[in-house]
Each structure stands twice: as structure tokens, then as C-alpha cells.
Amino acid sequence: MATTNRTKRPSHAGWRDDAKDLAGSALSNAADALVHSKRGILLIVVVALLLFGGLFDLVLNAGKAYSGVYVGSVDVGGLNAEQIEQKVAQEYEVRLPSAGVTVYANRTAADAKAVQETYGDEVDVQTERENRVSWSTSSEALQAYIDYEKLAREAIAVGRDNPADRLSLLFETKSIDVPVNFNEALVEALASDIDASIGKPLTNYDVAVEYGSAVVIPGEDGNMVDRAWFKSQLADQLLSPDAENRQFVAETVYTPVRIDQNAAQQVADSINSAIANGVTFTCNGTQWSPDDYTIGTWIQTVEEKHDDGSYKLVPTISTLKARESILENLPPKFEDGKGDVSFVREGDGISVRVSSEGTFPLVGDAIQSLNTAMFGSVSPDSSSNGIQIELSTAQVPPSMSFDEALSYGVITAVSEFTPLYTTGATARNVNIHLAADLVNDSIIKANGGQWSFNETAGECNEAKGFQAATAIAAGTTVDEIGGGICQIATTIFNSVYLGGYPIVERHNHTLYVASYPLGRDATVSWPEPDLKWRNDGTSDLLLRMSYTDDSVTAALYGVSMGYTVETEDGAWVDGQEPGTVYENDPTLPAGTEYVKVYGSSGHSTTVTRIVKDAEGTIVRNETFSSVYSAQDTVIVRGSASADALYGSGEY
């Protein structure tokens, strides 16, 4: 029988199994698809929610600080910039204006809340520094302020640059520090004063030009107050709510020099190379070539601070010194050859008027060109004919401001004098500044115009703001209204003395004042004694006063008469010996005593001033005599009994 081959069909049971497998696979795939689709939908929903929430958050908090943001101790969440400024100012502005801070020299002084002893003219600046135990300052004295506008901007910016920062605000707060801004120069002056008393100021290696040759000045590491730490301490105390205990103890740290010997030597070499090239100025056909010595007097060095905190010593030309020399040798030219001036007060300013037409050299442009040629990136060729500077000229205006007249060379600083004084006597220093302001910008007319301290300042009384401070009266030191104004009289006297002008009236103090030039002090009081002098020149003079916390300057401006002044000091002759005076103090126990005033012997001396004109002819030869009384030693003795001090009774 023949056999036929056929394809075997599956049984019913096998087909069902395959169907189940197919169905299961389909269901599994469907389930997986469903799961993935749910995840996708969920992801989309989450993203949408985040986007919507973020947009909602941005809209809700537009222009406002997020919840959880603080400025210092002030919660500013939900506030706009103006509201933040107002709220933060309410918290801190009440502290800052009234804030006074005491800095102590050591812990012992701080624990005792030691009050700094005040000194007057009888103590020099160095002695005061050596005995300093505390320094008092304030937000006003340091010109401290808080930038509330900047703080508001910073508060609103929190959480907006980084989503993670925004999320963190949901779980924790963020506080922005409240910095106090200072006048850096005032803080530096205070810190330097502390350095000089309890530390050792560093001395950077520097360069000086002596007789036309630059040499290195040795430096030395210091022990100083760290400036960043110091400002931080001041800020903390100024913002402290505890007004009764705003104080801290000053600390000094080792402070290495910022400019080392190698850096200074490189600068010295560059200066010597620049001086060696020489300079020639030309103006309207007139040439002037200053010698090496003169060029050297114009050169100074400044420390430049870089962004990385390093310092560099840079040579430069002093505009003031160079201008004076150039204008002295290439001065303005006037039709009448003189160029006499008069000063006129106009509102709050002083204008200068000239007697004839003239031209002046544009010195400012020349100095800038010289500075570039000497110390610019490209040095001049030493084999050339040196540096050539051509000066242009301009017409002198018939009337100009004081600063313009000074820069044109129409007027100059004829003479000036600057003494130092102690900083601890606050009331006395207030009086010094007030008196300086009263006589500032005095105009002394030409051809015999006279100036008087009392006529110019008037009575220095309480109505004008003068305070009680140490003064010398009847051979002893006392506290009286206006104490300290003799510092101004003495400063003016010495400026006039150096200018060579006639002194009409001058009186020395009854006691010798160590901080004044020997035999060249001047005392004033109301209505007498007075200080008077005359202007014997053909141009007006202007007396201009300026001051810092520890110095005052009296400068005379006008057209120089060409006077030179020589001084001959006489002998320092001993006088009367001091006596001893006892004062009773019923608040001290009997048997105790202390020295209130240390006595000094009397002395006398003379100072002779010889004034010569431009040709060397003596125009005046005068002697100023000074007689100083002895000052008694004052000893305070206690006289109180134990019963009077502590009471009596059984214990």
C-alpha cells in the first residue's frame, strides 16, 4: 500500500496552550505599556506641577523676598524692597546713630572701664600715645552707615539663582549679615593711633631721592591691629543693642612688610635711570632744564594694592611739588610785569582778580607728559637728548576761583606751618576746630593791611559752641571756655613768622608749652592779649586754615615778595624754681595724697628773626622775647576720717 506524507496538525490541547501563551504575552505587554504610560503621565504631571508651582511661586513672590529670608535678626519674608528697607532700618537705625564705642588698650583697663586722661598743650603727642589706655569713637566719628537698599536687593535675590536654594527655604531659614560701612581713612587713622600706642607700626621698604639719587629706605615688620578684624569688632559693637557695654580690647598681630627690599631696589634703579636722562621744558621760546636735585624733589612713591591683595611700590611725579618748581622758573607773564592780585569773597567761595592781562603755562599737561616719559611702560632712550617737554600757554582770566589761580601759578603758598596736637582732649580739639573755622579765609589787604585774631574770631564763648577745656591762666592750668584756641594763634604766628611779614603784637604764654616751637608761641584771650600782624606786600594775602584729628595748618596764599627768613635762637635761661601747693580733698581718707600737677622751673629765651628781600637786603631784624613763669607742684591731700567715709557703729 502506498503511504502519503502529511503535515501533522496540533492537538486541541497544544493549541490552547499556545493561545494562553500568546494571550499572556499580550497582557504582559499591555500591562508594561500601561505601567510605562502611567509613569510617563506621572512624570508629565509632576513636571507640569513643578512648572505651574514654580510659575505660581514666582508670580506670588514677584519683587518680594521668599519666606524664611532674614536680614540680620529681621524676618523679611514676603516683603518688597521698600518694605525691607523700612523694616530693617527700624531695627538697626536706632542703634547706629547713637552708638559710641570704647576701645581699650588692655583687659585691665577694660575691666576698670578706665577713662582716658586728657592732655593739653603741656604734653607732646608722643607722651600722650605712650600713656594711652582707651580710645572713644562713634558711628558719627567714623561716618558709619548701613546700605539698606543693597540689603533689600540681596534679600530678594535669595533663592532665585538656584532652584535648590529655593527648595531649602522650605525647610530652613537664610540670614543675610548686616555690614556696617565706614570712611576707610577715619578707621585707618584710629587703628594707626592704636598701633602707635600698644603695638609697632610696620615700616615698608621705600625709596627716597636724596640730592638727585634714589636710595632704599629700610623697612621693618610690625605688630599691628588687623584692619579687617578691627572693622568687624567696630561693626559688632555699633550694632549691639547693649548701649552700656559697647566696648572691646584692641589686639595686635605680627604684620610683615608689604614691600620688601628687592622691590624697593628695583624702583630705586628705575628712578635713577629716569633722572639720568634729564628734562628740558620749553615755553614761548624760554627753556629751563632742572638739575637732578630739583627733579628728585618732585618724585614720590605710592603703594598700589592689587585685586589679589598684593602691593606694589610705584614711582610718580608729585603734581604739587613739580608745579611749584616749574611755575617758579616759567611763571605767568603779565603786561605790567607784576601780576598783583586781590582776593574777593563771593558767597561761600573766594575769587582772585589780577591787576593786568597775562598768560600762564599749562603745567598740568606738562607734568602728565613728564610722568609718562619717566615712569611709563616705554622708557626714553638714555642716549638721546633727554626728555623734551613743550608747554602751551593760555590767557589769564581777569577773575578766577582760588583753585584756578593756584593751578595757573597766579598765586602760590607763600608760607605755611603745621603742628601736631594730642587727640585725647575732645573738648579742646572742638575748640581748635571752631577757632580755625572762624579765622579761615581771612583776607589781609595789600600795602599795610592789618590782621587781628580777636577782631577776626571775636569772643570764643559758649554761644559759638566753645567748650570748657584746659588753658593756661595766671601761671597755672585751668579749665575755661575756649581752652585750646592758642593752638590756632601759635600756628598762625609761625606761618606769618616764616613768611617774613611784620608782627605787630604777640605775647607768650605765662607757662612754657613743650608742644610749641621754643620761644615762638602766641597766646590770645578776649579782649586781650591779641595777635596782630601786617601785610607789607603789594598783593592781598589769604589766610587759609585746615585741620585733621591731630594737626592744624595755617597757610598764607598770594604773590610772594621773595622774602627769606633766618632764625637765631637765644639761650635757654633758668628762672624761678617751682614751689609746692597743697589742696585739701575731704572725700579722700586722711593721710593719703597724690600729685595733681607736676611743677616746672621758670625760663626765659629770645628768638631773633632776620628777613631779607630777593636781593639779599635785610628788611627787618627783630627779637621776640619770652619769659615763662615757674609752675608750682600741686599735691592733693585727703582729710576725711574713717567715720566720715564709712560711718560708725557696731558690726
What does this structure look like?
The chain has 651 residues and is of the alpha+beta class. Helix content is 32%, strand content 28%. Among the domains are: 261-410, Ubiquitin-like (UB roll) (Roll), CATH 3.10.20; 414-638, no CATH class. The termini are far apart. Residues 1-16 have low confidence and may be disordered.
**What would the average pLDDT be, to the nearest integer?**
85
Q: Please give the share of residues in helix.
A: 25-40%
Tell me what portion of residues adopts beta-strand conformation: 25-35%
The SS-based structural class is: alpha+beta
What's the alpha carbon Rg, rounded to whole Å?
39 Å
The main sheet orders its strands as 22-30-29-23
Task: Catalogue the unreliable spans.
Answer: 1-16
Task: Please describe the biggest sheet, giving its number of strands, its sense, and whether it closes into a barrel.
Answer: 4 strands, antiparallel
Report the principal-axis shape. globular
Query: How many β-strand runs?
Result: 37
User: How far is the first residue's CA from the last residue's CA?
Assistant: 151 Å
Features:
four-stranded antiparallel sheet, 17 helices, alpha+beta, 32% helix
Question: Helices and strands in order, then pairings?
Answer:
Layout: H1 12-60, E1 69-71, E2 74-75, H2 81-92, E3 100-104, H3 107-111, H4 125-130, E4 134-138, H5 148-157, H6 163-168, E5 174-176, H7 184-198, E6 206-210, E7 213-217, E8 222-224, H8 227-238, E9 247-249, E10 253-255, H9 261-277, E11 279-283, E12 286-288, H10 292-298, E13 299-305, E14 311-317, H11 319-329, E15 333-334, E16 341-346, E17 349-354, E18 358-361, H12 363-375, E19 387-390, E20 393-395, E21 399-401, H13 402-408, E22 412-417, H14 426-439, E23 442-444, E24 449-452, H15 453-457, E25 468-473, E26 476-481, H16 486-499, E27 503-505, E28 532-535, E29 541-547, E30 552-558, E31 564-569, E32 573-574, E33 580-589, E34 593-597, E35 603-612, E36 618-628, E37 633-640, H17 642-646
Parallel strand pairs: 1-5, 3-9, 11-19, 33-37
Antiparallel strand pairs: 1-2, 3-4, 6-7, 8-10, 11-12, 13-14, 15-18, 16-17, 17-21, 18-20, 22-30, 23-29, 24-28, 25-26, 27-28, 29-30, 31-35, 32-35, 34-37, 35-36
Helix pairs in contact: 2-5, 10-11, 11-12
